[in-house]
Amino acid sequence: GGALEEVGRNAVLLVDPLSVDSITKKIRLIANSYDLREELSMAAIIQSKIYQWDKSADKIFKIIASGEDY
């Protein structure tokens, strides 16, 4: 799994970026399913609370300021 899988979890539909067929299928799936769009939207809201730029920046600043190796 990659970073998008980790951060997106169940709020994303993954595609093969090199496959037009894969991308087309997922776009059609989302376009034709109101329930799926709602499910992904709700999951995205939950995921957005976990991964926030200000929290990440604060953690990085604290690591840099501490001078410790991580």
H-E string: HHHH
Distance between the termini: 23 Å
* Mean pLDDT figure: 87
Sheet with most strands: none
Oligomer: single chain
- Contiguous low-pLDDT stretches (5 residues minimum) are none
Rg, rounded, reads: 17 Å
Approximately how much helix is present in the residues?
over 70%
Number of helices: 4
Q: Overall 3D geometry?
A: elongated
Describe it.
The structure is a single chain. The protein has 70 residues and is mainly alpha-helical. It is 70% helix and 0% strand. It has four helices and no strands. The longest helix is centred in the middle third of the chain and has 17 residues. It starts with a helix and ends with a helix. The mean pLDDT is 87.
Present the secondary structure layout:
Blueprint: H1 3-8, H2 20-31, H3 34-50, H4 53-66
